[in-house]
Amino acid sequence: MHSLKLLFLSVLFTFNVENVAVSQTQTDTLKVLFVGNSYTYYNNMPQLVSILSDSTDTKLITRKSTVGGVTLKNHWLGEKGLKTKEIIAAGNYDIIVIQGYSMGTIDHPEDFKKYSKELSDFVKENGAKPYFYMTWARERVPQYQEEITKMYEAVARENGAEVIPVGKAWELARNLRPNLELFVPDGSHPSAIGSFLIASVFTKAFTGELPKSLPSRFTITDADGESVWLMAPDALDMVFCMKVAEAVLVK
């Protein structure tokens, strides 16, 4: 953790927080499917990733296959109404993000490893690249992060995949700013700024950049053309989260 602090302090970059993100000509597009549960869909995180990519050179077009509380086994077997395999096979995706149940690496590690492999192989068979979404330890048991980190890094290595170190970002953020409210009151799910931190890590990992500009309010437009409010994080908190994202992705 000391080395991460040094990396954090050494990272310097600038961007503007404005009412409207800066438009620019984007040179690439990537289709991304997020496979997971509430740790993915809270605060419409995949949509937030897409919005953040608007101010990078690569546009991320995101979709999700999620149901609250589900495991990778549920996704593989198509349980609880999930159609993950069908979506992967039909979607022509570039990237598939795989996120397991929050306590799965602790409580059911063999299932986690088994279905990580099944899904990774299926993703590659369908022409996409698998990425594992390393989750965070719950608020009251921060000591679990080491085990969660090791498990995600191991399954990524064993399956020829990449790992997105969201859990490390949360660990660093909590270490540097213990009073930042990354969690909602249940001590498990992300707050709005927690989801912004997650989205920052994904955006940096997939585009190689952090946004050059940010909106002060994050909104999307629904199928009826109505504006849907996502969040309006504090500008300084966003700066902090982006620096954390930069630090954990330095190799």
Describe this structure in words.
It is a single chain. The chain is α/β, with parallel strands linked by helices and 251 residues long. It has one domain (2-248): Rossmann fold (3-Layer(aba) Sandwich), CATH 3.40.50. It is 45% helix and 18% strand. It contains eleven helices and nine strands. Strands 3-2-4-5-6 form a five-stranded parallel sheet, with helices on both faces. The chain has a two-stranded parallel ribbon with strand order 1-7. β8 (218-221) and β9 form a beta hairpin. α1 (2-10) packs across α11 (235-248), α3 (45-53) crosses α10 (192-207) and α10 crosses α11 (235-248). The longest helix is centred in the middle third of the chain and has 17 residues, at 109-125. Mean pLDDT is 91; it is low at 6-23.
List the helices and strands and how they pair.
Layout: H1 2-10, E1 16-18, E2 28-36, H2 38-41, H3 45-53, E3 58-66, H4 72-77, H5 84-91, E4 95-98, H6 104-107, H7 109-125, E5 129-133, H8 145-158, E6 162-164, H9 166-176, H10 192-207, E7 213-215, E8 218-221, E9 227-231, H11 235-248
Parallel strand pairs: 1-7, 2-3, 2-4, 4-5, 5-6
Antiparallel strand pairs: 8-9
Helix pairs in contact: 1-11, 3-10, 9-11, 10-11
Keywords:
251 residues, alpha/beta, Rossmann fold, five-stranded parallel beta sheet, two-stranded parallel sheet, 9 strands, 45% helix
Instruction: Please tell me what the overall shape is.
Output: globular
Integer count of domains:
1
Low-confidence stretches at least 5 residues in length (pLDDT < 50)?
6-23
Total number of strands: 9
Q: Which value, in Å, is the CA radius of gyration? A: 17 Å
SS class: alpha/beta
